[in-house]
């Protein structure tokens, strides 16, 4: 007869317990489980593949280094995204403090646009407008404060619930709702000029 506690156990909790108990292979299984969603978040935050990969790797390094400190009820999802978001935020602050060096990096093509694959090839004018809008959206996201940007990315791209986002950003579920509202309002304001210019184009 199966142990119901074992069957219903959270895989994250099980793997954390194994890692804490000395099973280093549990880290590999955690990486397989979380690498893709963490990279997706980091890439959308920093829009730089190399930096995103580095930050995800650093997150797993810190997970291993702190393995003995985790409690049985640790919210692994919140811990991982919080750690990763802070790493992304540190780079964002550094870029703001060193704009000349950041622009030099941009000149080498390291920062990528937030384009998404499309099923059909649009007309040249439509393609250009799409690229401009995508670039403007990326810039608008970069201008969001860290707390608003993190909440928005976790909600709309990682599809986390308000409760899960609240655990990451450190506020109530009502606070998450407020942050998403403020983020949408700021994006709408920032993108309005770009959209109006496109609409006025012949």
Give the SSE layout.
Blueprint: H1 4-7, H2 11-20, H3 25-46, H4 49-65, H5 76-97, H6 99-107, H7 124-143, H8 146-156, H9 162-169, H10 173-200
Helix pairs in contact: 2-3, 3-4, 3-5, 4-5, 5-9, 7-10, 8-9, 8-10, 9-10
Low-confidence stretches: 1-8, 102-109, 115-126
If classified by CATH, what would the architecture of the largest domain be?
Orthogonal Bundle
Residue share in β-strands:
under 5%
Specify the CATH homologous superfamily of the largest domain.
RNA polymerase sigma factor, region 2, helix turn helix motif
- What is the total number of structural domains? 2
Distance between the termini: 72 Å
- Could you tell me the mean pLDDT? 81
The backbone outline, from C-alpha atoms, is elongated
CATH class of the largest domain, anyone? Mainly Alpha
Q: Count the DSSP helices.
A: 10
Helices and strands, in order, run as: HHHHHHHHHH
By DSSP, the count of extended strands is 0
Tell me roughly what share of residues is in helical segments.
over 70%
Name the structural class. Answer: mainly alpha
Radius of gyration, in angstroms, nearest whole number: 20 Å
Largest sheet: none
> What is the CATH T-level topology of the largest domain?
Rna Polymerase Sigma Factor, Chain: A
Descriptive labels:
2 domains, Rna Polymerase Sigma Factor, Chain: A, mainly alpha, 75% helix, disordered N terminus, 10 helices, elongated, 202 residues, Arc Repressor Mutant, subunit A
């Amino acid at each position: 007869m199966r142990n119901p506690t074992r069957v219903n156990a959270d895989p994250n909790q099980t793997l954390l317990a194994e890692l804490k108990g000395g099973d280093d292979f549990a880290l590999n299984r955690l990486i397989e489980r979380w690498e893709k969603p963490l990279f997706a978040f980091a890439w959308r935050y920093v829009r730089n593949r190399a930096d995103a990969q580095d930050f995800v790797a650093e997150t797993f390094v810190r997970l291993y280094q702190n393995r003995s400190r985790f409690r049985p009820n640790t919210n692994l999802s919140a811990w991982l995204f919080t750690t990763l978001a802070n790493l992304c935020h540190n780079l964002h602050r550094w870029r703001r403090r060193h704009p000349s060096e950041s622009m030099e990096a941009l000149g080498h093509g390291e920062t990528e646009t937030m384009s998404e694959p499309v099923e059909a090839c649009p007309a040249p004018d439509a393609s250009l407008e799409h690229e401009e809008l995508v670039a403007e959206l990326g810039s608008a996201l970069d201008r969001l404060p860290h707390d608003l940007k993190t909440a928005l990315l976790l909600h709309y791209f990682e599809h986390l619930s308000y409760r899960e986002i609240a655990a990451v950003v450190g506020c109530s579920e009502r606070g998450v709702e407020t942050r998403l509202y403020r983020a949408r309002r700021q994006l709408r304001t920032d993108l309005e000029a770009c959209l109006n210019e496109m609409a006025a184009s012949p």
